[in-house]
């Protein structure tokens, strides 16, 4: 199971999530089998040397299982944090692009305002010239 988890570190994300759930199921099955083994009488009798060793291995297996479960949770948490960090990074890039677009639009609107003011000034001058021309023509 440990080797499978190591392989999953380099697997594509959709596949990784799917396989992590399978590994968790395998761990549950393994834990169940270990409990069954502990509860099954192996014909060794109570207090024999083999029974003591089995008890030691059982405790070690439980500890390993607990450590592996914690490791899986830690890996999942790390994975989730990495995805969140990537999402935040994308959001920052989008915000920076939006800010640049907004700045460009404001500059363009400023230029258009100047053009409109120059056009208005020319229209006023043209209107004044037309008024003078009109007066000259009347006289």
TrEMBL record:
GO terms for molecular function: SNAP receptor activity; SNARE binding. It comes from the Eukaryota. Residues 78-139 form the T-SNARE coiled-coil homology domain. It holds the Pfam family V-SNARE_C. InterPro entries: SNARE (IPR010989), T_SNARE_dom (IPR000727), v-SNARE_N_sf (IPR038407). GO terms for biological process: Golgi to vacuole transport; intra-Golgi vesicle-mediated transport; macroautophagy; protein transport; regulation of protein localization to plasma membrane; retrograde transport, endosome to Golgi; vesicle fusion with Golgi apparatus. It is a single-pass type IV membrane protein. SUPFAM superfamilies: SNARE fusion complex, t-snare proteins. Transmembrane segments: none annotated. GO terms for cellular component: cytosol; endoplasmic reticulum membrane; ER to Golgi transport vesicle membrane; Golgi apparatus; late endosome membrane; SNARE complex. Residues 106-133 form a coiled coil. Keywords: Coiled coil, Membrane, Protein transport, Transmembrane, Transmembrane helix, Transport. It is found in: Membrane. Gene3D superfamilies: 1.20.5.110, t-snare proteins (1.20.58.400). Belongs to the VTI1 family. PANTHER family: VESICLE TRANSPORT THROUGH INTERACTION WITH T-SNARES HOMOLOG 1B, VESICLE TRANSPORT V-SNARE PROTEIN VTI1-RELATED. This is VTI1B protein. It comes from Calyptomena viridis (Lesser green broadbill). The gene is Vti1b.
